[in-house]
Every structure is written in C-alpha cells, then in structure tokens.
Amino acid sequence: MGGLKYYERTKLLIELIEKEKTGSPKELASKLGLKERMIYILLDDLRLTLNKEISYSKEKKSYFFNKKSD
Question: pTM (2 decimals)?
Fold first, then answer.
C-alpha cells in the first residue's frame, strides 16, 4: 500500500469511526477497497498511534472511539 493511499484510507477510517458510520468489518473493507484482514491491521495501527480504544457496536453496526480513552 502506497504512502499517500495509506494516509487517505487512514484519514477516511478515522472520520468514519468518529461519525460511527463504518458499517460491519466487511462493509468497511468494501468502502476502503481493502481485504477485511487489512481493516483489523489498520484498526490496530490506529489504536497504537492515537492511543485510543476502538470498539465495535453490534447495535450501531459501527466502530467507535471509547469515550473513556480520551
């Protein structure tokens, strides 16, 4: 994955998480043009880089930043 493309996808992922509009991991992978496994890798990278907890809500069908981690 090229540097600029990685940055753009990461930025979009952060925006979707903030808006709680990611959809399921499979839907998110489709939105970002990635394999589902890469979504989990990106989420792990974000957790480490941003030092925030990211969880998934089955009710909302979206990832979100845990408020406690702010």
Answer: 0.87
Domains of the chain: residue spans and CATH: 3-69 (1.10.10.10)
Q: How far apart, in whole angstroms, are the C-alpha atoms of residue 35 and residue 59?
A: 23
Output the pLDDT for position 70: 45
Please enumerate in sequence order all residues whose Cβ is within 8 A of that of 57, keeping only pairs 6 or more positions apart, or say none. 20, 63, 64
pLDDT at 12 over 80: yes
Residue 68 pLDDT: 66
Q: Are 52 and 42 in contact (CB under 8 A)?
A: no
